[in-house]
Model the fold of this input.
Amino acid sequence: MSYLARWGCPRPPPCPGAGAGACSRADWNEDGVIDFNDFLSFLNAFNTQDQCADLNGDAVVDFNDLLEFLNLYNVNC
Ligand SMILES: [Ca+2]
Ligand SMILES: [Ca+2]
Done:
């Protein structure tokens, strides 16, 4: 499945946290460390309904994705 079909947005891949430097999807700024800056960056994407914030892949950005992020956030790199 293509990126566009998967995420339904014109933004090119990868989403934050999915790049080569990322240690987890929660490493939103891909600096190899999961910290509060990643949480703030994710919240920005979440608040703007950025499809990259759809972490559970159900095509909706909602509270379940925030919970999914918190699960990833609690896993140290
Ligand atoms: Ca980070
Ligand atoms: Ca979702």
User: Anything to note?
Assistant: The helical segments are 3-7, 36-47, 63-73. The mean pLDDT is 87. The pocket of calcium ion (ligand 2) is lined by residues 54, 56, 58, 60-62, 64-65 (CB under 6 Å).
